[in-house]
User: Which sequence fits this backbone?
């Protein structure tokens, strides 16, 4: 069986949520993922719902079936999620330090809805994501945690954690920055959602 060393219950719950979020984000049914992972549909359902112990060999197979690695599947949250900018008043500059890397994508978004209440609508996928709030207040749901991110604050997080972003108390505008893996994960999620929409 998988041995968990820190806050076993929290990590166990996070891994289960991550499996479900990855499956939903990729548009896979329980049956489809069970077939890929060579486990029964009822076993997969019990794994997601916490009714079956997590076995290491099953996690390796599930990670492979979800196009990720075991390390990413059991990765834990970092404590430093929200950060404030560094302000250089003498030069009128505001900076957010990011670990820049090739293939990053920047998207400006205006959000008006709060994040979804339903944990099943949170997504997870390989990669890292950053966001800077340009105006208003954003809410970031990250696993079981909830962060308020005010104007000029930034957040950085691994996208293997089930996550969702929305506005609080009115519209907000954010700058979303994705590494290559995160951008591909979002694209797969958008493609899956489009495939699920009924034809006009």
Assistant:
């Amino acid at each position: 069986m998988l041995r968990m060393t820190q806050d076993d219950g929290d990590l166990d719950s996070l891994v289960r949520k991550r499996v479900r979020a990855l499956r939903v984000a990729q548009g896979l049914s329980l049956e489809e993922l069970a077939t890929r992972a060579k486990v029964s549909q009822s076993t997969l359902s019990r794994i997601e719902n916490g009714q079956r112990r997590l076995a290491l060999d099953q996690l390796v197979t599930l990670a492979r079936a979800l196009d990720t690695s075991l390390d990413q599947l059991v990765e834990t949250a970092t404590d430093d999620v929200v950060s404030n900018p560094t302000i250089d008043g003498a030069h009128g500059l505001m900076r957010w330090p990011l670990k820049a890397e090739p293939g990053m994508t920047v998207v400006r978004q205006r959000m008006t809805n709060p994040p979804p209440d339903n944990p099943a609508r949170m997504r997870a996928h390989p990669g890292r994501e950053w966001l800077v709030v340009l105006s208003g207040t954003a809410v970031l749901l990250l696993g079981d945690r909830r962060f308020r991110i005010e104007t000029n604050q930034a957040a950085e997080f691994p996208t293997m954690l089930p996550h969702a972003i929305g506005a609080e108390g009115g519209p907000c505008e954010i700058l979303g920055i994705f590494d290559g893996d995160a951008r591909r994960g979002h694209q797969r999620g958008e493609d899956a959602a489009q495939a699920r929409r009924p034809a006009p």
Remarks:
- The chain has two domains: 8-73, 82-196.
